[in-house]
Amino acid sequence: MMSTALLFGQTKKTVAQDGSGDFTTVQAAIDAVPDGNTKPVIIYIKKGIYKECITISIAKAFVRFVGEDVTTTKLTFDNYASKKDSAGKAFGTTGSSSVFVNGDNISFENITFENSSGPVGQAVAVNVIGNRVAFKNCRFLGSRIPCIPRVQRCSIIKIATSKVRSILFLVRPLRCLNIVRSIAD
Predict the structure, then answer these.
(1) Per-residue H/E/C for the chain
(2) Do 126 and 113 contact (CB within 8 A), yes or no?
(3) Would you list the domain boundaries of the chain?
(4) Of the four listed, 63, 100, 119, 131, which is most buried by Cβ atoms within 10 Å?
(5) Alpha-carbon distance 123 to 47, whole Å?
(6) Can you give the pTM of this predicted structure?
(7) Which residues, 6 or more positions from 104, have their beta carbon under 8 angstroms from its beta carbon?
(8) Bridge partners of 42?
(9) Looking at the domain 11-183, which fold is it?
(10) Are 110 and 137 within 8 A, CB to CB?
């Protein structure tokens, strides 16, 4: 388990489905981070399966997400590329993501990211647009393309993958990218 000890100036928010934390959903905890935030915020996520489409807006920054355990803390949703939105338009590959990371200076530890749509075509677990985004001891589960970082300066470290056919990295320009993959189950 990663240490979530607070340093001077940090704020910690806890997400727990059973109501024992500050929030019962991850999105509610994200929404509580002030727009334009410049101080470190830790969002500690207790074990559970959180089925919600999560968006970290470009206005959110300096947030560290720490799961209780990589095998028991799961962020999942079930959109897929050919699924239609309320306007009747297909989500497309990038729009099918379970988690959208648009903010900068975001990190994740001990979390499993999943797109649980099943064998229905392309389905993305995480779509990263923000800069300086890091994953440590995380798992990515999805159909064909579990993680799409599309950024200019992304540091992705210790990506633990399980049952993954491929990971597609669309990084422009290809600089400042550090990828270390380890297979864990």
Answers:
(1) CCCCCCCCCCEEEEECCCCCCCECCHHHHHHHCCCCCCCCEEEEECCEEEECCEEECCCCCCEEEEECCCCCEEEEECCCCCCECCCCCECHHHHCCCEEECCCCEEEECCEEEECCCCCCCECCEEECCCCEEEECEEEECECCCEEECCCCCECCCEEECCCCCCCCCCCCCCCCECCEEECC
(2) yes
(3) 11-183
(4) 63
(5) 24
(6) 0.79
(7) 58, 61, 130, 131, 132, 133
(8) 12, 64
(9) Pectate Lyase C-like (2.160.20)
(10) yes
Residue labelled with tokens 């597609």 = 168
Distances from the Cα of 178 to the Cα of 43, 109, 128, 134, angstroms: 24, 16, 15, 10
pLDDT in tens, the chain (185 residues): 445 555 555 789 999 999 999 999 999 999 999 999 999 999 999 999 999 999 999 999 999 999 999 999 999 999 988 999 999 999 988 888 899 999 989 999 999 988 888 888 888 888 888 888 888 888 888 766 555 555 444 444 334 444 443 343 433 333 333 444 433 43
How far, in Å, CA of 74 to CA of 19, rounded?
17
CA-based nearest residue to 108, from 57, 50, 177, 155? 155
Dihedral angle of Cα 146, 149, 155, 159, to the nearest 10 degrees: 10
